[in-house]
Design a protein that fits this description.
The protein folds into two domains: 142 residues, Sandwich (Jelly Rolls); 241 residues, Extracellular Endonuclease, Chain A (3-Layer(aba) Sandwich). A hairpin with a 2-residue loop joins β2 and β3. By secondary structure, the protein is of the alpha+beta class.
Length: 434
């Protein structure tokens, strides 16, 4: 028989067990889905020794850092984080996504300047990449540093002090705003996004670079586009000379290799444009944009300077005749032959994959407006697949014509997806013969 005392004891024990289960005994791993600010007002950590502390947003791991509440700690409330040497503040949980991250920072007391960086992980903390530029903290007044992360997937943060030695800095109000994909407004994707490329660092094999002059599905590991899509009309053409300012693309996400202007040197391959220089001659900025290395592929000289160049010239004559074009180009397969002979799989010390074929698909419309609605079963399409090899410099580009369907079979992409499927099925199955 249970006495009242024993029953009370059991109730208390059960309550303690329940409370223990509700306490955050391990680092939180569930993702935060709304805008979230860590103000360091909850939790206590008074020593610099590395340890985890539970704060309002979840578990953080502070290394050579503490939570300070002295009058010389710069803060908006009663507390802020304080870092010294090369200390770090690391989340041990994931945010569901991150569009922008803002961090308030100031020097502690009368200490000198320090530098720090924001690093992010998209794989649960296994690896990290730096975001944005190194920040210098030199003021005793809290300033705000802003970082663009643009990750649609889970993200962990690491705030790392990188310079200033024993000088201390305060960090407060770390705010993470969730990622929101921008609406597809690019004229270059009017006819569709062939691979549903997105601005998301978690999609490194299909990362969207939506530039004013063209749109790119970039493949980080191949070091070149999957495809480039662009609109060509008389409004893009003028008298601007070729800029020839080949250069790396600094808009790639932090931590990604940026192919350099000289990376193809000695490889036997041209820096082959996707969107041609001659398709963007209205302004210097437009033409210069075509020389970014994210618009290039390793292209055999005989291909690039022969039938490929002739096809590009032909397409511009269609514009001169009163048409506008929607063009998508890319490479497929592995390994091409340049002027050095043999089959080359990669250039740039393995950073850039060499394709085996080069392809292009085109929709031709009379100049006008509401372009998708004007595509009919009679609309002309042009598609080609050319080998990325030597010995074809004098070949007629028209001998490489195929149907759009054949390019889709080769690549797995869905071209002109914004056109009704009943129309697509007709215009994509025919081989141009004009």
């Amino acid at each position: 028989m249970r006495t009242p005392f024993r029953r009370a004891a059991l109730v208390c024990a059960a309550a303690l067990v329940l409370a223990a289960l509700l306490l955050p005994l391990a680092p939180a791993t569930s993702a935060r889905r709304q805008s979230s600010t860590e103000d360091f007002e909850s939790g206590t950590k008074t020593a610099y020794a590395a340890a985890a502390v539970f704060l309002s947003t979840g578990w953080w791991y502070l290394d050579d850092a503490l939570i300070g509440n002295l009058s010389t700690d710069r803060k908006t409330g009663a507390q802020s984080a304080r870092i010294r040497n090369v200390g770090q503040l690391n989340t041990q949980f994931d945010y569901a996504s991150a569009g922008t991250v803002t961090v308030q920072h100031a020097v502690f007391g009368t200490d000198g300047s320090s530098t720090w960086e924001l690093w992010v992980s998209t794989n649960g903390g296994s690896t990290y990449s730096k975001v944005g530029s190194t920040v210098t903290t030199s003021s005793t007044t809290l300033a705000t540093a802003s970082f663009t992360v643009n990750s649609a997937g889970a993200v962990r943060l690491s705030i790392r002090k990188t310079g200033g030695g024993a000088n201390r800095i305060n960090i407060d109000n770390v705010t993470v705003n969730p990622y929101s994909a921008p609406p597809p407004t690019s004229v270059h994707l009017t006819m569709g996004n062939p691979s549903n490329a997105v601005v998301d660092v978690n999609q490194p094999a299909n990362y969207l670079l939506d530039k004013p002059q063209y749109a790119v599905s970039y493949n980080r590991d191949k070091g070149r586009p999957n495809w480039v899509s662009w609109h060509l009309a008389s409004s893009w053409l003028g008298s601007t000379p070729r800029q020839d300012d080949f250069r790396n693309d600094t808009t790639l996400p932090a931590g990604w290799y940026q192919v350099q202007a000289t990376d193809y040197s000695g490889s036997g391959f041209d820096r082959g444009h996707h969107c041609p220089s001659a398709d963007r001659t209205l302004t210097v900025a437009d033409n210069s944009s075509t020389f970014l290395m994210t618009n290039m592929m390793p292209q055999s000289p005989d291909n690039n300077q022969g039938p490929w160049a002739n096809m590009e010239n032909y397409l511009r004559t269609l514009v001169s005749s009163g048409n506008e074009l929607y063009i998508v180009m890319g490479g497929s397969g592995s390994g091409g032959t340049g002027s050095n002979g043999g089959t080359t799989l990669t250039v740039a010390n393995g950073h850039v994959a060499v394709p085996a074929q080069v392809w292009k698909v085109v929709i031709v419309l009379p100049s006008g407006t509401n372009d998708v609605s004007r595509v009919t079963t009679s609309t002309r399409t042009i598609a080609v697949i050319m080998p990325n090899t030597q010995g074809i410099r004098t070949a007629d580009w028209k001998t490489y014509r195929v149907s759009v369907d054949q390019v889709e079979s080769l690549t797995g992409y869905d071209f002109f997806s914004n056109v009704p499927t009943s129309i697509q099925s007709v215009i994509e199955s025919t081989v141009d013969n004009q």
